[in-house]
Amino acid sequence: MSPTDILSDTEQLVLSYLSTHAPEDCMLDKISLGTGKSRATVLKYLGMLHAKGILEYQIIGRNKLWHVRQAPREKFSGPPGTEVPDETVSDMVVECDRLPLDPFRVMI
To answer: Which of 1, 4, 64, 76 could form a disulfide bond with 57, CB atoms 3.0-4.6 angstroms apart?
Structure first.
């Protein structure tokens, strides 16, 4: 079951608006006009979706531009018994690119 399966109708309406409109159209007033809901209702559901980790916002002047949060990059756990402190696979690949290349050794 995905997180969007348990959203209310209004949450789904706000989420679909944000998914289909340009970032400059994703301010409170424009979302309110586009969804046909009051500013108070839209603000309530934006807050709920943000608390659930589905939405993010960026403050531009006095406005918040809302957008759907991108999926986080997966963490690399490493072999059992080792710790990898808050690095992602792509960070580790960059570090590996700086190592001297051994043509007889291939990492998979």
So the answer is: 64
Q: How many other C-beta atoms lie within 10 A of the C-beta of residue 54?
A: 17
Residues making up the chain, counted from first to last: 108
- Helix (H) or strand (E) segment spanning residue 66: strand 63-68
CATH topology of domain 3-68: Arc Repressor Mutant, subunit A (1.10.10)
Stretch among 39-53, 60-74, 94-108 having the lowest mean pLDDT: 94-108
| Residue 68: strand, helix, or coil | strand
For 74, phi then psi, to 5°, come to -75, 145
Residue tagged 């979706």 (tokens): 49
Domain locations in the chain as residue ranges = 3-68
DSSP labels for 8-65?
A: -HHHHHHHHHHHHS-GGG-SHHHHHHHHT--HHHHHHHHHHHHHTTSEEEEEETTEEE
The model's pTM is 0.62
Question: Binning pLDDT at 50, 70 and 90, where does residue 1 land?
Answer: very low
